Amino acid sequence: MENVLGLVALACGLIVGLGAIGASIGIALMGGKFLESSARQPELINELQTKMFILAGLIDAAFLIGVAIALLFAFANPFQLVA
């Protein structure tokens, strides 16, 4: 049983860590492309900014779903065997 709990803790750390790395890289790439496109066509900044904020929210939502799943595994562990 201790082995299962240890592996669940490791999995929770990996879910949160890899999710944070992925979200950070995604937002960084999106921000860079926004700056490129706003420098090329300054008349479209308002439309691009709106779309950028919507995408940033979606990227963060995906990360927070991963955090919620990790919390589910950590506190309401479905892998524990009921005796």
From TrEMBL:
Gene Ontology CC entries for this record: plasma membrane; proton-transporting ATP synthase complex; proton-transporting two-sector ATPase complex, proton-transporting domain
Taxonomy, superkingdom: Bacteria
Residue intervals of the V-ATPase proteolipid subunit C-like domain: 10-73
Localisation per UniProt entry: Cell membrane
Site entry: Reversibly protonated during proton transport: 60
Main location: membrane
PROSITE patterns cross-referenced by the UniProt entry: ATPASE_C
Record key words, sorted: ATP synthesis, Cell membrane, CF(0), Hydrogen ion transport, Ion transport, Lipid-binding, Membrane, Transmembrane, Transmembrane helix, Transport
Entry-linked Gene3D superfamilies: F1F0 ATP synthase subunit C (1.20.20.10)
Transmembrane portions of the chain: 6-31, 52-76
Molecular function via GO: lipid binding; proton-transporting ATP synthase activity, rotational mechanism
Presence of keyword Membrane: yes
Membrane topology: Multi-pass membrane protein
Recorded family membership: Belongs to the ATPase C chain family.
HAMAP family: ATP_synth_c_bact
Function, in words: F(1)F(0) ATP synthase produces ATP from ADP in the presence of a proton or sodium gradient. F-type ATPases consist of two structural domains, F(1) containing the extramembraneous catalytic core and F(0) containing the membrane proton channel, linked together by a central stalk and a peripheral stalk. During catalysis, ATP synthesis in the catalytic domain of F(1) is coupled via a rotary mechanism of the central stalk subunits to proton translocation.
Name by which UniProt lists this protein: ATP synthase subunit c
Biological classification of the source: Bacteria, Pseudomonadati, Pseudomonadota, Betaproteobacteria, Burkholderiales
Chain's gene name: atpE
